[in-house]
Amino acid sequence: MEIGQTENMVSDSDNTAIIKWVPSVWVAVIVGLFFNAFALLYVNRPRLFWVYFIVSALVATFEFFYFQLILISLIFNVICPVHAFFIAKGYNENTKRGWYSKLWVIPASYVLIFAFVYCFRSFFYEPFSIPASSMEPNYNKGEIIIVKKFGFGRYGTFGFDLLNSGVSDEELMKRGHVYVFYPPNKEVAFIKRLIGLPGDEIYYDVNGISLNGQKLSVSSPVNRGNGFVEFAENIDDQYYSIFRYSNKPLEKSGSFKVPEGHYFMLGDSRDNSYDSRFWGTVDSNSIIGEVVYVLKNNPGLK
């Protein structure tokens, strides 16, 4: 007899013993507490499982973006085991048992789904939360960005690297685009804009940035605020806004020749950014991926 089941012995017309399966109510509750929607598989309700699974996946996804949904997630964690309990308690022993209700299927399915999510985040797309204001006004603190990882060589997620071979195609690295990476001697992901490619000569001072002897084109002020001035900057036909702070300009100057296999990164909030002007260029093996989408004005993160 399988663990977590009860058996009812009945006889057919030939007095041959027939074993009919009935789920254990307490196993249903335990499975529901630890595996949530998978408890509906154990009690032999595959359609309900898919309803619960899809809803729980949506709640978990948007909970990452909006913390207010955490209450719904907690309620959902209670509903699953309670619903499974009542189904098991009123279970009809004549119901045909599906293979998916066997206990070993539940952890196996859970592992397969987790493996899929892990691989997708490791090799294709991964969400990150912007931790600071150094990329204002284009990317604000607390917003969620989606990073494309395939081709950049730094594969892994949840703090574990699976492979680190460096950027596979230099065409993926373009001036003016925004990337997520690990700066030198740090294991915290940063988001910055790529300014210098391998071989480029960079000069910077309080007046702006020069690339290979040419100062980057900057517009007249397009906006003014409390202590800051917003400009539009242009590099390789990429236009984006930058902030300069009139009340606390970054009095720092220097020059770089970007080594092979390295990149020069800057924050868009030029007087409020810890970037390549401080810790140097970023190695190709440290590039996580390119920012391809941002969820603006996220009310769930402050």
Can you describe what's shown?
With 302 residues, this protein is of the alpha+beta class. 26% of the residues lie in helices and 31% in strands. The chain has a seven-stranded antiparallel sheet. The protein has a four-stranded antiparallel sheet with strand order 11-10-9-16, with no helix packed on it. Strands 12, 13, 14 and 15 form a four-stranded antiparallel sheet that branches. Strand 13 (223-224) and strand 14 form a beta hairpin. The longest helix has 20 residues, at 46-65. Residues 9-17 and 298-302 have low confidence and may be disordered.
**Which overall shape is indicated by the principal axes computed on the Cα atoms?**
elongated
Q: What characterizes the major β-sheet? A: 7 strands, antiparallel
Number of helices: 6
- Helical proportion? 25-40%
Radius of gyration: 28 Å
Assembly state (oligomeric): single chain
What string gives the helices and strands in order? EEHHHHHEEEEEEEEEEEEEEEHEE
> Strand sequence of the main sheet, in spatial order?
3-4-19-7-8-17-18
Structural class: alpha+beta
Low-confidence stretches: 9-17, 298-302
- Integer average pLDDT: 87
Q: How many E-type strands? A: 19
